[in-house]
Design brief:
This protein has 88 residues and is mainly alpha-helical. The protein is built from 3 helices and no strands.
């Protein structure tokens, strides 16, 4: 355990951040999973409806630093390509 006041504060902050980041990451994974299920099921209308909010969530989570910016861009690209292939 930390011995200094500043180290104790850092430990508390780390716990809060870790909990928040886990929540964000869980939300992100759930949204991506729903979108991928729609794409795999061949449901173009649902996939298109889910795409925009999912991309927004990815951007927001990357902005918070939960995932790397390049990982966010890669995920967005792959999801967009999958939905576009479903329609065309």
């Amino acid at each position: 355990m930390a011995n200094k006041v500043s180290a104790e504060k850092r430990a508390r902050q780390a716990l809060k951040r870790r909990a928040r980041n886990r929540s964000y990451r869980s939300q992100l994974r759930s949204e991506i999973k729903k979108l991928r299920q729609a794409v795999d099921g061949g449901d173009a209308a649902t996939a298109q409806a889910l795409l925009t909010p999912t991309l927004g969530t990815i951007d927001r989570i990357a902005q918070h630093g939960v995932i790397h910016g390049n990982a966010a861009a890669r995920t967005k690209s792959r999801l967009s390509r999958a939905v576009a292939a479903l329609e065309g």
